[in-house]
Amino acid sequence: MSARGPVQVRASVLSLKKVGAYHHLTLVAPGIPERTRPGHFVTLAVGGPDSALLLRRAFSAYRVRASGAYGGTLEIVFAVRGDGTRQLAALRQQDEVDVVGPLGRPFALPKEPVSCVLVGSGYGSAALFTLAARLQERECSVHMVVGAPTEEQLFGALEARRTAQSVTVTTEDGSVGIRGPVTGPLPDLLARTGSEVVYASAPVGTLGAVADLAAQHGAWSQCTVETPMACGIGVCMSCVLPVLGDDGITRLLRGCVDGPVFRGDRVRWEAAGA
């Protein structure tokens, strides 16, 4: 029987490198990789035991390896946005980090081979690569759209070309690929590939547009949301989203335990964060 449920471990830094506008952190984190599925996230403590930074920081799992020369590894990608991520960016090899994971509900995978489109914006693309591999194991065709405001803020464009049957790159400033938002090529791509499922990892505003376009083309969408998660375990209610239930009633669901993956057609994106 495979391991299930989150664990809390003292992980050690194997490597930390700069990739464009982001940081790519690899941790030796025994117990987490074998439990992690595409769409799961982890939380990291920042600042140490004497720090005023009490809240953990949540990150999507980029890649996991259950075994290796140093043991099971977990990889995450992040941007420096405040004191917490600045602390993480200053880590050195063999430093220790307190990690809890995997957390949340992962992506649902098709039971039959279908054509799928994966949409990633910025470092949100990192959440899609293990998903792409799992879909291909199920003989699904995978088409990726990777976008960002600028070329420096793209993540994984080269990896996507090694992973998917087709890759479309967009930048809002036109510095590489198609000029415009990551949603721009979606209507043509969905029509051309006849894709039945769309997966997306992007800011909330982009997720709403992806979900709308998928619905217009008769596709089922799954979106992983990036909302503030102060606890990551469903206690603090800082990450709630308005989501329609089967009965047509809107309820506030927690992004950390009811998500982070939601059906795109069920989230009331226009009210998210209101």
Question: Can you put this structure into words, describing what you see?
Answer:
The protein has 274 residues and is of the alpha/beta class. The protein folds into two domains: 7-103, Translation factors (Elongation Factor Tu (Ef-tu), domain 3); 115-271, Nucleotide-binding domain of ferredoxin-NADP reductase (FNR) module (Rossmann fold), CATH 3.40.50. The chain contains five helices and 16 strands. It has helices at residues 83-89, 129-137, 157-163, 186-193, 204-216, and strands spanning 7-19, 22-28, 41-44, 57-60, 63-65, 73-78, 96-103, 115-121, 141-148, 166-171, 178-179, 197-201, 220-224, 240-244, 250-254, 261-263. The chain has a seven-stranded antiparallel beta sheet with strand order 4-3-7-1-2-6-5. Strands 11-10-9-8-12-13-16 form a seven-stranded mixed beta sheet. Strands 14-15 form a two-stranded antiparallel ribbon. Strand 9, helix 3 (157-163) and strand 10 form a beta-alpha-beta unit.
